Amino acid sequence: MLQKRLLAWFCGMFVISFILKGQDPRFSQFYASPWNLNPALTGAFEGRWRVVANYRDQWSSVMAPVPFRTYSAAADVRFGINASDYFAVGIGALHDEAGTARFSQNKALLGGALLKQVSGRPRRASHVLSVGAQLGFSQNSADWRRVWFSRQFNPVREEPDFNAPSGEPNVRANSDMYLDFHAGLLWYMVFPRNRGFWTAGMAWHHLNRPNVSLLADNPAERLYMRWTLHANGLLSLTSQMGLMPGLLFLSQGPARELNAGAALRYFNGDRHELAMRVGIWARVVNRLQRGLHTDAWIAAVTLELERWMVGLSYDFTTSSLARFNNSRGAFEVSLSYFHPAVRSSRIACPRF
Q: Model-level pTM?
């Protein structure tokens, strides 16, 4: 019975890797991947420029040697318009691969944002609004040499013959290169003397609903638009301790996802700041017609070393898949570098 369940699960995962071609990859450390979260986060940092890299490895325990992997890298730089307003530009790329056929999504985007201070006085909280957009090109692909169809099964040898014709004339390795457009809004407030901050944002990805079909006759296979709501903050508890709650809601086609949790942040208060965050998050997703369920619990640790920020997290599976992977889910690492500005700005930015 267990073997049958495992076979059914592997077949299901192979099919899902194609059915979910209308869904975007995600990072559990969403707060450490601003480029993929919201275009309005471009330039929303303290310093001159920033570089961010993310890596996610999912389901290695059951999908080895071809687990789901996601790589992302981005860089942005901001320029002063006046003493309190900025505009920022950036560039980012993402590669995601899933399943035996290595179904992949590749994208490269240019983006920009305008950050406008709407209020702020000495010893008062400063409020900033940001509007941003991203535009670039993407392409989807699959490696058909790694999979086989029923026509390729050799009944004499009782094994698939990968050199035999598949009889699938419509499939092709790559989709057309397609244009992709995203937009976003962000509000944040920063309290004086590093007493904390609050942010809230909304983003819309794939506003142009691009065609991502892998079929040779190229029927319209539109990518679902994704909209995102996110909020997080830092609430000072003591002179060296703070609480960082966070919330992320994603909606794309029939899929819904909610991430909620908090981290405890300890910092030394020195000029050369050293801080550590330890947090836990819950991810709740929908089962289409079967309601909501908790998909995973996420444990995360982040170390801040002046200009550097390093994050590690692990997803512990709590869905029915936990029976097959012993609750082992996804490992993720993030790395950020913040280059200091030549002169201090009047308005501070949150450090996500």
A: 0.85
